[in-house]
Amino acid sequence: MSNTPSERPITDLTELLALAYQIEADAVQRYIDLAEQMEVHNNQDLLKVFRDLARAEGIHAEEIRKMAGDTDLAAVAKRLGRWQKGGSPEEVDLGAAHYLMTPWHALQLALIGEKRALEFFTSVVDTTKDPKIKEMAGEFVEEEAEHVNLVYRLLRKYPKPSDNWSEDDDSPAAQG
Amino acid sequence: MSETPNISIAILGSGGAGALTAGNLLLEAACTAGCHGLLTRTIGPQIRGGEAAALVRLANHPIECMPERYDLLIGIDWLNANRFGTEIDVGPESLVISDPRGGDLPAVVVRGGARVVEVPIKELAKAIPDGRPNMVVLGIVAALVGLGEASFTELLEKRLASKGAAAIASSLAGLKAGLAAAANIDLGKRLSPPKPSDTKRWLVSGNETTGLGAIRGGIKFAAAYPITPASEILEWLAPSLTKVGGVLLQAEDELAAVNMTIGASYGGTPSLTATSGPGLSLMMEALGLATAAEIPIVVIDVMRAGPSTGIPTKSEQTDLNIAVYGFHGDAPHLVVAPQSVADCLFTTQWAVYLAEALQAPTIVLSDQFIGQAVAAIERPADIAFIGQRVKAVETAVGVYKRYAITASGVSPMAIPGQPGGQYTADGLTHSERGIPTSGEADHRAQLDKRRDKLDRFNYGDHWATVEGDGEFAVVTWGSLTGAVREAIERLRGRVDVRLVAPRLLSPVQPERLAAALDGVKRILVVEQSHGAQFHRYLRAHYDLPGEVRVLERPGPMPIRPSEIEQAITEWRS
Amino acid sequence: MTIVEAQVARKAADYKSEVKPIWCPGCGDYHVLMSFTRAFAELGLEPENTVVVSGIGCSSRIPAYTNCYGFHGVHGRSLAIAAGLKVSRPDLTVVVASGDGDGYSIGGNHFLHACRRNIDMTYVVMDNHIYGMTKGQPSPTTEPEFDTALTPGGTGLSPFHPLVIALASGANFVARAFSGEPNETASILVEAIRHPGFSFVEILSPCVTFRPDEREWKSRVHPAPVGATNNPGKAARRLMTDDGFNIGILYRGERRPYQPSLVGQNIDFAELEKDFEL
């Protein structure tokens, strides 16, 4: 592991909390962006799914914020400047969206995000030398594992769509 | 169950529901079964997944405009349907089929007091493997307008052949489910059967008939730069020109497109390009060049709402000014305007003929409404207008006068390849031999010539549609001709109204218009233009008898027959 | 003058019309006209099967000074006119004449796409690093520090590199010539016209009226250190050390020219209606 600024080791609990907060806050923003896209494109099912995901991540973010008391975690995260390339672990890939996507697709994307977050905290546990950081990172590992399981449970409600899920009889509209 | 000469259906849906496809299939099935019909569509701003409505009017007689209100409105869902406003209006006599899970009814339905019947369209579709809601809708509509399953089986098999047997089966199953679901719903009216006819009929859009008219007129070269709503003309021409030994060249912009057209025509090939308002603006300089150098070209302008980028998907009649007046200098040229989907074929073919005969640019003012509407029309008769330019024979270099003053004003044109015919075509003012000059005599002589050649030409009866008699006249042009005709029909027995719709807008025809309006005391000018461009154009060039009123409105909503009818009845009292 | 030269000289004169050019005495374009006619004579082109297409500017006056078919179009659009003409009349030899303003400024977009399209024609740009006809504004090839009334102190902008653009955009033949060497220029034009596809020849042609400093061009031009290549990469590397005065053929490419077939399928127009039938 190189020591670029974005990958330098976490030195204190505040930094860990800030990164954990950033993960959730970035995810909230992405899910809101996607919810808006789905609304404009009349995909009501996905509007609801993305709004629900945004709300859930928002709750996580709020919990972490409370743990930090008065500290402005967003400012700390900005200073740390991690994840410049490729986005933070739970930032869903906007390029994977589709106007006809189904809840199954959305949850697959959410699953990728939660797993990446889990990997991140696991690597902190594995590499940190600070026992306090290790302990708190371990708690986050458990949290994220629960999120992963939650997404799996939700996925059980939605069957994988058939092969022609993206078929649209109408051709694209020329707008200008 | 009352009989009616026409029935109108609007099918709404969003996010991949396939409403437009359902509308197309409905039109095709009904027209194959013998009905007349017209289809337009209206869409939201999204490229995919947007709210969309297919608007279909079926009739037992040819139809050229859309109705004020729809007899049947079906919503696969109502998401963002309020965007369409009163474009899809319903009244107490209308029937609305609504999916209970499709969202709130649009305001027009609530206000209009229509009868609402719920059918679980999406649920019915889901019950079928790979079922699609638009097929269920098609079945419902079929049942309500009296089309049976048989009208659709062959059609679906043809249209879905490439998707395979499973897709065909699920579509038919959807259709059946819709038919069954509507079995106990009564529309309250039935289309009276059309008169049986042996005439061959087509199902075709104005843009397609424009393309065919061009080829029939002799076009062998087209330059193309895409723009809504004209791209379909160019896309139809691309393979069609190849079939007849012609060629279409895609250009990098409209400036290139019009200049390529001029270059090809200079080489002897009848040539054309197609665009819309913004593109026509860009082409203006080159059109002046074609005028000054006397090179025949045809430019189709499928008008859309302006100014500037405007509303690309909606119709307006506001490029009249630029088509007639947009050239710098005094540059007489030809402007013609088709009046319906079928007339696009005649007018475009005629435009090629005129351009070639008069060695002048001809602008064809079509519009989004007729360009993109799909109509069942009688196969237009073959007409003899084929582009023929007067070519120079037996010429010698240093002697040949490309721009010789002749009795008709048209000079024989040498085509590259012809020995002794060499000349340099030029936008610079030139002598009869084509040598640049700044002299008074040559400038006036060539200006006179270019004006006279257009004025001396006999355009025949095609210059305008003149129908009916009476002291009332409605003067209009382009796609509004159909709406005016329908209004006049409704007034039959109450008021005698004459219809005068010029097809040739430039050069103006004062004597002929005076003859057409002979005896008229009241003129209603009807046009789709906020600035009343047509009215001002008439005032500038014609003495209008009696009193004149103007019914003008910009896009995006087309002027309806009822508005015209009302304007006339109000004026009568 | 040998008999052959006399014959060639006579034939070259055959390509000149009787129209007297309006160019200032000393203008490089007189030599370019000479090169044109010598090249046409060398190729034995028939004037009635040759078209010279131009835009607007001093150099664009050239069609009327030849006795071939000519088209003096509007500013910047000569390549578009020529494209429509050549594609529909592949039997004609099409030469396009332009200047640095007409060709690289307003015509810039069409230049890129003409190189891309690779229609068989020859594009000759008489570059004098100035807008001459409109009396001395900077053109895209004018040096950044050159002072003019429109741009006091100079434009401060990097000049356009036409050979680089042509090569990068796919031109099939790229060369630079100097009007002051009309025979050499004629030879380059002969090769350019013979070479299939889009041939681009930039001819440095001094403007004595608005760029009297360009009289020194005759001392600055020099033959290119190496001969032409058919390798675009090599040609590109040579352009890296090009001082703007390398004379000669840089690149002879092997792209197939664009020319759609005009043969058609001999069908009845009724075939086209089949899709419409109910």
Description of the molecule:
The complex is a heterotrimer of chains A (176), B (573) and C (278). The mean pLDDT of chain A is 92. The N and C termini of chain A lie far apart (50 Å). The longest helix of chain A has 28 residues. Helix content of chain A is 64%, strand content 0%. Chain A has a single domain, classed as Ferritin (Up-down Bundle), CATH 1.20.1260. Chain A is mainly α and 176 residues long. In chain B, helix 1 crosses helix 5. The longest helix of chain B is centred in the N-terminal third of the chain and has 17 residues. Chain B folds into three domains: 190 residues, Pyruvate-ferredoxin Oxidoreductase, domain 3 (3-Layer(aba) Sandwich), CATH 3.40.920.10; 176 residues, Thiamin diphosphate (ThDP)-binding fold, Pyr/PP domains (Rossmann fold, 3-Layer(aba) Sandwich); 113 residues, Rossmann fold (3-Layer(aba) Sandwich). Chain B is globular, with a radius of gyration of 26 Å. In chain B, strands 7-6-5-2-4-3-16-9 form an eight-stranded mixed β-sheet. Chain C has 278 residues and is an alpha/beta fold. Chain C has one domain: 3-Layer(aba) Sandwich (Rossmann fold), CATH 3.40.50.970. Helix content of chain C is 34%, strand content 16%. In chain C, helix 1 crosses helix 2, helix 4 crosses helix 5 and helix 5 packs parallel to helix 6. The termini of chain C are far apart. At the A-B interface, loops of A face helix 1 of B.
